[in-house]
Design brief:
About 50% of the residues lie in helices and about 15% in strands. The radius of gyration is 27 Å and the shape is globular.
């Protein structure tokens, strides 16, 4: 860690006490004795920010002086989680501040609970981005994130009468003490208008983008501190504001309200995460959001680059852009526009620079999730970019036609989908405009090459690679599970915090009775905390000794929460109708949000809640089964659910999940996994051992064969297996919807439909058999403890530190730039 002498503010108890008191008085305008938990949390956050800003400026100067290449991560979302506790842990100030606040007569953990989660993300995509930022800073890598400063998050989820109800998530209601406004570094973003053809004195084509409306992007920096506080990078988020220039023509005509309306509409762009696309205005707003992200980021990056490097032909030597899925794919067209239109670089050279600068990560295999934008909409919002995309496409198709590509290949790789309603394929734009295309697990990366982009892979096999996802051990073990963290540090030291591979040192302790007892005591304490939370929030009593079976993730048919619910119905019916009891009593916990317009997903939430109402009130099931749905899933709730889980449900249809990172978080915290051979489950099973992983269901190739050959026969499975019949018939009745017969009959109908592409019934019986084995193993306490310990011990590969090192070496070409006294920490981590 760099010397404290380099900074004006010390990290001593005396200095922190002085800072907190100063901010209470001068920033909050209060007397100390009149503060509440929110006030103290804000004063502490401001005290940390003061220290972080000092280190952030030192880090920036260090990168600048080294003339290092920098990586810029472009993502439409970042699911950061609460920042106060994370900063305390990474700066190694938690214990100091805990003692300090005890002196005030205050529990610092209660203060931390008062902080809102920054609602800047939706799910795995945003949480992965946050883990990457943590690893970049912890590894002293010159990189930062770019995103949008949403005023409202996705939504806050309430459950009323069993149904999801969306409420506005105004996460900024209490402000965000950590962020630093950079209003002097605003950028201007052009939108709409028209393109007029023109030529310069040398008869070169010089298109003129005219009559565009301007929008202002104002940056806010959130410091991202690495473990130990040696390096502080940042996440730069842009807030949309109207240009100070009202449309003077409207204003002069006396329509002041119309001028104000345009200002308000401009600022809608950063108002809410993921606006509804069910209406045309929602679609347009989403496209404008994506361009706003790209335009602000690139304008800011180029301004910084030109300040230090005049030669734009060296851009790829100093700048790496990572596109996190297709949302920032417009970066390809925008960078081309800047190079060609603004800097007059010839087209071929500009495209070579663009391709060498950009890299693209694919996160989905679902065709409907690959973004497309109608040509009409693109031309309306971004007329010059549409021209550029068409020109990229023309030159690209000419090139491959010369090389002998057939008509079908040309059709599939074209950036423009032809037809009655032409559209731009953003994934194809990202592939053509990038020097690297990566998937996020070994299986996913192979499917990207084989199924998603086979023609591109045949052309450019060297551009395709895999970067298996990882999670930061600082948040997801060190901070989220202090009991287990303390046990690990006591047993093997604290080296695992920066080198997760060191967890393997507990392997020899997996059969040690004393260590098993301590490990399971930590798990029980976490389960007791979760049980208390469930009781407080839902009024449902759950027994901590039960097996805690958890499925926490976005609600989607391919993730198959419905398969889990069907198994619960099976267990319940065996108990009440057949007198057969599960080997281990279990608490089944669900959490996750459904997209507001996704009817099926919202109905699955309703089913789980109705199921819980029936099961939890039935005395016959009381000692064997409980079902709860935890509302408003977010990072801070995940930090309570994950350490308490005994069993992690990762049961997506094989070949549909790109990677998953929740699976990794659960396993690192000692949960065993029941899952299909999908996403990163495949690699996790290889690492922890198949005897410590509960695999069931069809393999990817079996799923592909069944779907492509029309070989799925759900009605035959219904007739052949009384267990399936019993579950589906119960769903079709009013057994789980008293007074509302047929409420869930649609599920039975859909499960029996041959076009049901997630193959629930094909995997159901194997799932039931595997769950039975889970219950039997859980009853063997020493066996279960051994398996759980080995899961934790063998998850070293799945640190985001490893993932970032691979990106840095294979794609970005960046290297650590540590503080002088920190250089040794990189020698043993490569």
């Amino acid at each position: 860690m760099s010397s404290e002498k380099a900074f004006g503010l010390k990290n001593t108890r005396k200095a922190m006490d002085a800072s907190v008191h100063s901010h209470v008085l001068h920033s909050l305008g209060k007397e100390f004795e009149n503060t509440d938990h929110k006030d103290l949390g804000r004063a502490l956050a401001l005290s940390l920010r003061d220290r972080l800003v000092e280190r952030m400026l030192e880090t920036r100067n260090r990168y600048r002086e080294s003339r290092s290449k920098r990586m810029y991560y472009l993502s439409i979302e970042y699911l950061l989680g609460r920042c106060l506790g994370n900063n305390l842990y990474n700066m190694r100030l938690y214990n100091l501040c805990k003692d300090l606040f005890q002196g005030y007569g205050v529990d610092i953990d209660e203060v931390r609970e008062a902080e809102r989660d920054p609602a800047l993300g939706n799910g795995g995509l945003g949480r992965l981005a946050a883990c990457f930022l943590d690893s970049l800073a912890s590894l002293d890598m010159p990189g930062c994130g770019y995103g949008i400063h949403y005023e409202y998050g996705l939504f806050r989820q309430d459950i009323r009468n069993g149904e999801q109800v969306e409420r506005p998530d105004f996460w900024m209601a209490d402000g965000m003490p950590l962020q630093v406004a950079r209003k002097d570094q605003f950028v201007v973003v052009p939108l709409y208008g028209r393109v007029e053809d023109a030529h310069d004195a040398e008869s070169e084509y010089v298109p003129m983008w005219l009559d565009w409306k301007d929008l202002v992007g104002v940056p806010y920096d959130i410091p991202i501190v690495g473990y130990g506080g040696g390096s502080v990078n940042y996440l730069r988020l842009f807030s949309a504001q109207s240009s100070q220039n009202f449309d003077m023509q409207i204003f002069n005509q006396g329509d002041y309200l119309q001028a104000i309306r345009q200002k308000v509409e401009s600022e809608l762009i950063s108002k809410v995460l993921y606006p509804s696309e069910s209406i045309s205005f929602g679609k347009e707003l989403r496209l404008v959001q994506e361009y706003f992200l790209v335009a602000c980021s690139l304008r800011d990056i180029m301004r910084r680059y030109i300040k230090l490097n005049k030669d734009l032909t060296q851009l790829p030597d100093f700048v790496a852009l990572q596109l996190n899925d297709t949302h920032p794919a417009l970066a390809v067209a925008e960078l081309m526009r800047m190079l060609v239109d603004e800097h007059r670089i010839p087209w071929d050279k500009a495209f070579d620079l663009t391709r060498k600068t950009c890299a693209y990560t694919n996160h989905t295999l679902l065709p409907e999730a690959l973004e497309t934008w109608s040509v009409d909409l693109m031309g309306h919002v971004l007329p010059r970019h549409l021209q550029i995309i068409y020109e990229i496409n023309r030159r690209f198709l000419e090139q491959i036609e010369i090389s002998g590509a057939g008509v079908e290949t040309v059709r599939r790789v074209s950036l423009v989908a032809e037809g009655d309603h032409k559209s731009i394929r953003m994934a194809n734009l990202a592939v053509v405009g990038s020097h690297s295309i990566n998937g996020v697990s070994k299986l996913h990366s192979e499917l990207v090459k084989k199924n998603l982009f086979p023609e591109f892979y045949a052309m450019w096999p060297e551009r395709f690679n895999n970067k298996t996802n990882g999670v930061t051990p600082r948040r997801w073990l060190y901070k989220a599970n202090p009991g287990l963290s303390d046990l690990l540090c006591e047993s093997i030291g604290d080296g695992w915090i920066m080198n997760l591979d060191e967890l393997h040192k507990i392997e020899p302790l997996a059969e040690d009775a004393g260590f098993q007892e301590k490990f399971m005591e930590v798990k029980l304490a976490n389960k007791q905390r979760l049980a208390a939370l469930i009781s407080r929030r839902l009024g449902v009593a759950v027994e901590p000794s039960f097996l805690f079976d958890v499925q926490a993730k976005r609600i989607h048919e391919y993730k198959r929460q419905l398969l889990n619910a069907m198994h619960i119905i099976h267990l319940y019916l065996r108990i009440v109708d057949h007198g057969e009891y599960p080997a281990a009593p279990r608490v089944c916990v669900f959490a996750g949000k459904a997209a507001p317009g996704y009817w099926e997903a919202k109905q699955i939430i309703k089913l789980v809640n109705f199921l819980g109402n029936v099961v939890n009130r039935d005395l016959r099931a009381k000692d064997h089964l409980r079902v709860v749905f935890m509302p408003d899933y977010r990072v801070s709730l995940a930090e309570k659910l994950i350490p308490a889980a005994d069993l992690s449900e990762q049961i997506s249809t094989a070949g549909t999940e790109a990677s998953g990172t929740g699976n990794m978080k659960f396993a690192i915290n000692g949960a065993l996994t029941i899952g299909t051979l999908d996403g990163a489950n495949v690699e996790m099973r290889e690492e922890v051992g198949e005897e410590n992983f509960y695999i069931f269901g069809l393999r990817t190739e079996e799923v592909e064969h069944m779907l492509s050959h029309g070989a799925y026969r759900p009605k035959e499975l219904y007739e052949a297996h009384p267990e399936i019949r019993e579950v589906l018939d119960a769903l079709a009745s009013d057994r789980f919807s008293p007074g509302q017969p047929g409420l869930f009959a649609w599920i039975r109908d859909k499960m029996l439909w041959e076009g049901e592409r997630y193959l629930h019934l094909a995997d159901f019986m194997d799932y039931v058999r595997t769950q039975k084995l889970v219950g039997q193993d859980y009853q063997q306490r020493e066996l279960w403890a051994k398996k759980a310990i080995l899961n934790t011990a063998r998850m070293g590969k799945f640190s985001s530190d490893r993932t970032i090192r691979e990106y840095a070496e294979d794609i970005w070409g960046i290297k650590p730039v540590p503080p002088e006294k920190d250089s040794s920490k990189h020698k043993s981590k490569s």
